[in-house]
């Protein structure tokens, strides 16, 4: 990596733009960066670090600190630009931190975000943009440089104070610094991963042991008393021997349970025999008690039957008399029916006579019929008079109708006159509506012509904005494709160069003894070239070439896609401008235009839609005008016709009134007179019929009396009243018959039971005692249940113990590989963590790696330290333990004059300086090699030279000057005056009131 040019603007103490030409400074190989204290020497190095990594060295990156210069004008932004060559590429990186800037509108400041830009130089295309992304630029530079910010600050900027502290610090502090430089986090991650695996394996072993212990507890519960008697398990989860103890304990529990099962079988057999004997004895006692109770019940039923015998005889006699009376029942019913008919006829006759006049209440049926015929003839004579009266009523209705029609015609004429009086005004208003609707239709057509182009412009503006985003994305993809193409091309060229460097080995692989070489033609091949480290073959180069060609095709496709999107964006922009090509309208402005035109068009369309209704309203009004004129004329004609009709009706009604007056007599009307005659005829007819009905009912009652007397005599009763008193209904007779049948059935049942021999013999024996036999049987039953329950529990316990033992054995088998894995991982984790007895020096894995790196650094530093100290001092690495601390990161110095080895903390101030300088240079070489061999062409050494005497200073400068042999340039940052005499090429930082500035002093 070589620095070419640095531009600093408003950064740190620099208020204006300052340019640093590293190419000019590096031409001599060694240059001095000097200036008074506080002028900004270190700020130049901070600017280099900020340009590369976006941050200054960690010690000066304090929270809340601003990189902006307090001397800079408010309108001058802070910016750092660095031009460098790294990884064979010429790059220019520009960075600006987050900083306040004046607002574009109004007073005050607004915070502007940090910005980054990266450009690349191509001999054919010149400078071209590569990226504007902070993340992409950071990843690209870190990959090319091969070092993190901390590594860069330690390797390139070489802060001597840090290395002096490194020499005097303990192993822990050295470990922290070396860990940052060599990034040994992966080894710490390995330690943590092994510890995590150990914890996981330990957790799995403990979980398996806990499952086994849980099974042991379940076995103890299933074993019952046998489990309580066994010796408890003393091992805990995770301890060896737990599984074997559980299996042994489970075997003992199973053996005890099987012994208890055999005992339970024998107890159940004894209880079953006792229960069967008690059952037979209980059944015999219960049968004896049943027969004795049956005999006693029979005796009591026989006594009760004799007590009910008189009632049985009475029911038989009462039932026989009721059955004789049943033969008189039809005659009794016929007599009662005749009596009811006679009473009804007498009541009807009384009601009919009460409606007649007093002189007619005692006449016979013939006289009543004669009067009925007379009044009926008078009623027939009133038909003509009724028709005349109805016609007169209709004439009254017609007169009312004519009056109503006359009033309606008068109202129609008045309404027509009022409507026709406003006709001219109404007609003018309707014609005005028609004209306004026609004008609105014309306006709607004009607005429709403006609305469609406006909508097309709005759609085009939306597409334009969307395509603007597509253009930006296509540009970013093209930038990425170009970067990928450059990377692929660089990788291919690098592989091709490496292959060409090792082409001799590739050609040597094809040599055959005795055959001429294709290059020199010699048949002897004394020393064929052999492939070196990192040799590249043809296949690898061809794959890199294919990757470069694929990246080139991807870049071409991205360019084609960008061109297509740009064409679409330009077309959308042109369409969005429309006829106005001077300015570009936004989507919001075009949206407002479309909304306004849409509203105006909708309003005009709404008004235009009223054209046909307005015309129809005018046509309807003209039609109504004509109809009202015709209606008014027709109403005048109907008035004349009604006058003639009214005169004719008056004459006809006068004639009808004379006829009606002669026919109605004293009644108010003919209809009333006819209604009175109709009622009189009906009353006479009803009275005549009632007289005839009453006579017929009396005759039927007399005949029924005669038949009833004859039926009672034949049935054996003295009078009909005696037969009626003995008569019973069907329900009463069924009740008597049921009582008789019940007594007879009970008598038959008692006779059958008294004939039973076994009951009679049982009654002769002593009284049975079933409660005593029941108690004995229940005791036997309880004993059998208890024995069966104990047997079932023992059997279930044996099965459960067998099942749980199998589960425990399965868990133990599964635990075996888990425990083996845990022991293996635990050994590895202990070794990596330095806690294992096998790790004699108690070194952690990360400390072991750092010790190897420190040994490399000490060897590289010794080569320069011996030159600086005239061969006196040598740095050596020590892995000895000090006190109770772990070994691995000790650093000692060997004094060749005394032959003794001592701690680096015992060096003097000057010795400490050149020892730390040698250590820094050695560390730079090792870190550079670690970073993949990235060449560091520019180094900076910060302070510490004031502690050296003249001879030592000359030796140190000789060592630094020897770095030019590798085409390096070294910048010394110091304010020591003697260095300005010894180093002719200088960069001076001048401290001024308006801000610091830089001046180049070239030889």
Task: Give the tags.
1003 residues; alpha+beta
Would you summarize the structure shown here?
It contains 27 helices and 16 strands.
> Beta-strand percentage?
5-15%
Taking pLDDT < 50 over at least 5 consecutive residues as the criterion, the unreliable ranges are: none
End-to-end separation:
24 Å
Number of helical elements: 27
The value of Rg in angstroms is 68 Å
Reading side by side through the largest sheet, how are the strands ordered?
Answer: 2-1-4-5-8-9
Number of DSSP E strands = 16
Shape: flat
Q: Helices and strands: which structural class? A: alpha+beta
Q: What number is the mean pLDDT? A: 77
Residues in helices, as a percent range: 55-70%
User: What profile does the largest beta sheet have?
Assistant: 6 strands, antiparallel
Structure description:
This protein has 1003 residues and is α+β, with helices and mostly antiparallel strands. Helices cover 68% and strands 10% of the residues. It has 27 helices and 16 strands. The strands form four sheets. A six-stranded antiparallel β-sheet has the order 2-1-4-5-8-9. Strands 13-14-3-15-16 form a five-stranded mixed β-sheet, with helices on one face. A three-stranded antiparallel β-sheet has the order 10-11-12. α6 crosses α24 (845-868) and α9 packs antiparallel against α23 (770-833). The protein is flat, with a radius of gyration of 68 Å. The two termini are 24 Å apart. The relative contact order is 0.14. The model has no long low-confidence stretch (mean pLDDT 77).
């Amino acid at each position: 990596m070589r620095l070419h040019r640095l531009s600093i603007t408003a950064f740190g103490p620099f208020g204006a733009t300052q340019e640093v030409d590293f190419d000019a400074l590096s031409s001599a190989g060694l240059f001095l960066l000097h200036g008074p204290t506080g002028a900004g020497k270190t700020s130049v190095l901070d600017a280099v670090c900020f340009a590369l990594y976006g941050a200054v060295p960690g010690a000066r990156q304090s929270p809340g600190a601003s990189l902006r210069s307090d001397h800079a004008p408010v309108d001058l932004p802070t910016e750092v630009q660095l031009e460098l060559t790294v990884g064979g590429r010429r790059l220019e990186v520009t960075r600006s931190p987050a900083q306040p800037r004046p607002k574009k509108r109004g007073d005050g400041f607004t915070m502007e975000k940090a910005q980054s830009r990266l450009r690349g130089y191509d001999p054919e295309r010149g400078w071209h943009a590569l990226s504007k992304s902070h993340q992409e630029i950071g990843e690209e530079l870190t990959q090319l440089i091969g070092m993190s910010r901390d590594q860069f600050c330690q390797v390139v900027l070489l802060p001597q104070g840090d290395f002096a502290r490194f020499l005097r610090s303990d192993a822990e502090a050295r470990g922290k610094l070396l860990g940052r430089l060599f990034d040994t986090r992966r080894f710490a991650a390995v330690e943590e991963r092994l510890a995590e695996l150990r914890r996981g394996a330990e957790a799995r072993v403990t979980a398996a042991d806990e499952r086994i212990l849980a099974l042991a507890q379940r076995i103890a519960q299933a074993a019952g008393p046998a489990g309580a008697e066994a010796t408890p398990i003393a091992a805990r989860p995770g301890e060896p021997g737990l599984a074997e103890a559980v299996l042994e304990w489970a075997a003992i529990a199973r053996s005890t349970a099987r012994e208890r099962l055999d005992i339970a079988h024998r107890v159940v057999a004894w209880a079953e025999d006792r229960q069967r004997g008690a059952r037979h004895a209980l059944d015999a006692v219960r049968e004896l008690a049943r027969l004795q109770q049956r005999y006693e019940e029979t005796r009591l039923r026989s006594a009760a039957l004799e007590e009910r015998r008189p009632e049985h005889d009475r029911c038989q006699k009462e039932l026989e008399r009721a059955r004789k009376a049943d033969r008189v029942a039809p005659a009794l019913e016929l007599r009662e029916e005749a009596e009811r008919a006679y009473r009804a006829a007498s009541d009807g006759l009384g009601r009919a006579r009460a409606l007649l006049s007093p002189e007619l209440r005692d006449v016979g049926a013939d006289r009543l019929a004669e009067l009925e015929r007379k009044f009926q003839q008078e009623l027939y004579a009133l038909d003509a008079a009724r028709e005349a009266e109805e016609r007169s009523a209709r004439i009254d209705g017609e007169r009312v109708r004519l009056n109503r029609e006359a009033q309606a015609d008068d109202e129609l004429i008045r309404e027509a006159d009022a409507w026709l009086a406003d006709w001219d005004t109404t007609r003018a208003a309707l014609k005005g509506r028609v004209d306004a609707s026609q004008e609105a239709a014309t306006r709607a057509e004009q607005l429709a012509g403006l609305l469609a182009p406006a909508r097309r412009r709005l759609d085009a503006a939306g597409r334009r904005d969307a395509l603007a985003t597509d253009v930006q994305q296509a540009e970013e993809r093209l930038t990425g494709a170009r970067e990928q193409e450059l990377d692929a091309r660089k990788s291919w060229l690098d592989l091709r160069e490496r292959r060409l460097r090792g082409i001799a080995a590739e050609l040597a692989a094809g040599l055959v003894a005795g055959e001429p070489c294709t290059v020199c033609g010699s048949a002897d091949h004394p020393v064929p070239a052999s492939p070196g480290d990192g040799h590249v073959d043809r296949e690898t180069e061809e794959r890199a070439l294919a990757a470069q060609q694929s990246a080139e095709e991807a870049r071409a496709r991205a360019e084609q896609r960008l061109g297509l999107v740009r064409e679409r964006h330009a077309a959308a922009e042109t369409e969005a401008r429309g006829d106005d090509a001077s300015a570009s309208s936004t989507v919001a402005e075009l949206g407002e235009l479309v909304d306004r035109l849409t509203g105006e068009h909708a309003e005009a369309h709404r008004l235009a839609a009223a054209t046909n209704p307005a015309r129809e309203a005018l046509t309807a009004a003209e039609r109504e005008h004509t109809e009202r004129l015709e209606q008014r004329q027709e109403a005048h004609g109907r008035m004349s016709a009604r006058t003639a009709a009214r005169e004719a009706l008056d004459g006809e009604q006068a004639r009808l009134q004379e006829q009606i007056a002669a026919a109605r007599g004293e009644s108010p009307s003919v209809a009333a007179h006819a209604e009175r005659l109709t009622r009189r005829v009906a009353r006479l007819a009803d009275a005549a019929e009632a007289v005839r009905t009453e006579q017929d009912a009396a005759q039927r009652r007399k005949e029924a009396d005669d038949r009833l007397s004859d039926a009672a005599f034949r049935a054996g009763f003295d009078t009909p009243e005696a037969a009626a008193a003995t008569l019973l209904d069907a329900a009463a007779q069924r009740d008597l018959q049921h009582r008789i049948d019940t007594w007879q059935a009970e008598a038959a049942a008692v006779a059958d039971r008294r004939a039973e021999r076994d009951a009679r013999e049982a009654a002769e024996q002593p009284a049975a005692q079933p409660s005593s036999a029941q108690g004995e049987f229940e005791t036997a039953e309880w004993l059998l249940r208890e024995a069966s329950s104990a047997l079932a529990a023992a059997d279930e316990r044996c099965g459960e113990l067998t099942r749980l033992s199998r589960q425990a054995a399965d868990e133990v088998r599964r635990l075996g590989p888990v425990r083996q894995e845990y022991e293996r991982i635990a050994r590895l984790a202990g070794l990596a963590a330095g806690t294992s007895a096998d790790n004699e020096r108690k070194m952690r894995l990360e400390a072991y790696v750092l010790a190897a790196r420190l040994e490399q650094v000490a060897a590289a530093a010794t080569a320069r330290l011996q030159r600086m100290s005239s061969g006196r001092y040598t740095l050596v690495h020590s892995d000895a333990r000090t006190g109770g601390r772990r070994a691995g990161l000790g650093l000692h110095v060997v004094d060749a004059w005394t032959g003794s080895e001592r701690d680096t903390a015992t060096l003097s101030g000057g010795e400490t300086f050149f020892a730390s300088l040698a250590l820094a240079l050695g560390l730079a070489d090792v870190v550079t090699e670690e970073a993949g061999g990235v060449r560091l062409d520019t180094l900076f050494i910060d302070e510490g030279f004031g502690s050296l005497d003249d001879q030592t200073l000359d030796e140190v400068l000789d060592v630094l000057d020897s770095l030019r042999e590798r085409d390096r340039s070294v910048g010394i940052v110091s304010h020591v005056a003697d260095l300005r005499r010894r180093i002719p090429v200088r960069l001076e930082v001048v401290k001024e009131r308006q801000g610091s500035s830089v001046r180049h002093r070239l030889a």
